[in-house]
User: What shape does this take?
Amino acid sequence: MDDVIIGLEIHVQLNRLQSKMFCGCSTAYHDSPPNTHTCPICLGLPGSLPVLNKKAVEYGIKVGLALNCKIEEETLFYRKNYYYPDLPKGFQISQYDYPLATNGHIMILGDDGAERNIRINRAHMEEDPGRLVHAGTIDKAKYTMVDYNRCGMPLLEVVTEPDLHSPREARAFLDKLKSIIEYLEVFDGSL
Ligand SMILES: [Zn+2]
Assistant: This one.
């Protein structure tokens, strides 16, 4: 049988923050009507400019340290251009060649019962897009609506090296990561 090799890319919504990544909109949108937590910045209206949420960077650094990463002295945001209806700016603000945190690792219990070291390639910050709401199922819907409440929500993307060798190990890694980010109070898993 061939060896199974798994690397993961995990999007953590930093949902314990009060405001979105680049604007002052409230993050408490989960029980709100569509498009009530928006402003010119997260709607990408012409002339609006993003202002980075300082607390989001602090949360990102906390997670980076807990994952034993190197926190970079300089970090850079850039525009990831793609067109999709849930992305009103036509680009997502993300990080590419200068991520916030690099070269970490955490331990999980491997399939053989021994501790296994899982390397973290990077953890970088980006913003969530909005959400498409189909009228019915995606293949039969006559129309689709868009809700921008989630647009601009702070995300931390955690990327592992391909160090996982089974779905069970991938699950063990996700459980460990979840326990870390809940302990750090940067993520509320109940949402
Ligand atoms: Zn906004």
